[in-house]
């Protein structure tokens, strides 16, 4: 029988203590207990590359678009016969909306869609050739993904239907019980130079009226003349920066047209465009390449958005496994924008697709005085469209979801992961393969789907799992035990979570000072469990047990640690010293 060691508890609670001073406590010894009050934290997020999800309306496929530089269905051949594709494949607003029930019923409350803005109408002829295993190579590629904006006020023609514009899409999603997270880009537009002959749209920006306001003119950045050529003023003239010679974040990413963050016209254009899409129903933003723009830009952007929409939630992509670096975006002085939790993703990959134990996840939690402004508002995930999908067994995915939906943070799951779709495949090797209605309809037959639906719906119905403090009891080898506790604004709930990623059942044991005597509800089993002088509970192999009480832990040691977590949950330099 496994015992939970008080020494291990204390060690876990001290993770990252050295990162900053404690915020002056915003709760008295008997005050509120919660991880976050952000309303968006209640919603788990399902992420789709819209073009690759479901083709709900073949009438908008634009299959003849591009002429000799066609844009539809461009395979990337891989030696193992599992090909990628860099052309459009037909996914659209209708395909997502038609399957809103499928997504909601799995337990999600929001859908993150890739950028909707207009992209070029041809395949790119510059850059480096795309190969099965290549990265940041764009020759022959199209803007199916949406990140190559040319007019940020216009919806790309591949997405809407005659009877379904973006406003209709967001209205329909809300009616189905889902919020819309819109992917936005502030760093760049489309690829802009190295073309043998300049192509329409590439390196160009158009305003709300369709007038050309910026043009890279197929020139390398160093040949731009922003001072004397008005159409160059939108762009940086820095060029590509080699990592050995400086920060790569100071220069261009691949051949993408790099916006000049210091130009007020750039800010006004982008802020105006994204305010427009909020007006059309966007509920939250995911910010692409946030680290490639200076903090001052995003602070100004966040202040402008929140001056009109105070609770508007934003999280950015800072592709770095160093928590200290990505945490900077979460600080109030830099805009207070949450981020995707890349350090936790790295840990989850090692634990659920590798051989590491649950202790590896403990070092990524940063629950007390860590680098993040608030770790409970991070977007947690294990893979996405820019990296190989997690290469795990079915049990590994089940274990990953059991952690993702019970631990701190806002869960994000990439489309198809509910069935282990294209596991282990990289960007041009199938990561972004077309999913399709047939796979959606068959999804419920996957054991991963069934287990995900079970735990995600539990989170959706359990405030403690959405916003509660996390108090670890054990994170070691194949086993985890922790509390999630909330006492805030009329909601009082304690969830005791036990996870087992091992192949054998776990006879879990909690000592008397770690669990209150009395009756608990088994949230997944529907039975009552009685604790007296401790608790012994069986957890199935690759299983989860969650016990609930509408009360707070009464043991003095637990109560003291919860208030310590409450007062220390904020981190970074914005805390009081």
CATH topology of the domain at 43-340: TIM Barrel
Spatial order of strands in the largest sheet: 15-14-13-8-5-2-17-16
Sheet with the most strands, sense and barrel status: 8 strands, parallel
| Strand coverage percent | 15-25%
Enumerate the spans where pLDDT stays under 50 for 5 or more consecutive residues: 1-29
- CATH first level of the domain at 43-340: Alpha Beta
The average pLDDT value, as a whole number, equals 93
Number of strands: 25
Distance between the termini: 43 Å
| Corresponding CATH architecture of the domain at 43-340 | Alpha-Beta Barrel
The fourth-level CATH homologous superfamily of the domain at 43-340 is Glycosidases
Structural class per helix/strand content? alpha/beta
3D structure, described in words:
Helix content is 23%, strand content 20%. It is an alpha/beta fold and 577 residues long. Among the domains are: 43-340, TIM Barrel (Alpha-Beta Barrel), CATH 3.20.20.80; 469-568, Immunoglobulin-like (Sandwich), CATH 2.60.40.1180. Strand 14, helix 7 and strand 15 (338-339) form a beta-alpha-beta unit. Residues 1-29 have low confidence and may be disordered.
Which SSEs are present, and which pair or pack?
Layout (H helix, E strand, L loop, with lengths): L1 E2 L2 H8 L31 E4 L26 E2 L7 E2 L7 H5 L2 H7 L3 E4 L3 E2 L32 E5 L10 H10 L3 E7 L2 E4 L12 E3 L5 E4 L40 E3 L5 H16 L4 E5 L6 H14 L4 E4 L6 H4 L11 E2 L2 H11 L6 H7 L13 E2 L13 H11 L5 E5 L22 H6 L4 H14 L2 H5 L1 E8 L2 E10 L2 E10 L5 E5 L7 E5 L5 E4 L3 E5 L3 E7 L6 H13 L9
Parallel strand pairs: 1-21, 2-5, 2-17, 5-8, 8-13, 13-14, 14-15, 16-17
Antiparallel strand pairs: 3-4, 6-7, 9-12, 10-11, 18-19, 19-20, 20-25, 21-24, 22-23, 22-25
Helix pairs in contact: 8-9, 10-12
Protein name: Cyclomaltodextrin glucanotransferase
Cofactor: Ca(2+)
GO molecular function: metal ion binding; transferase activity
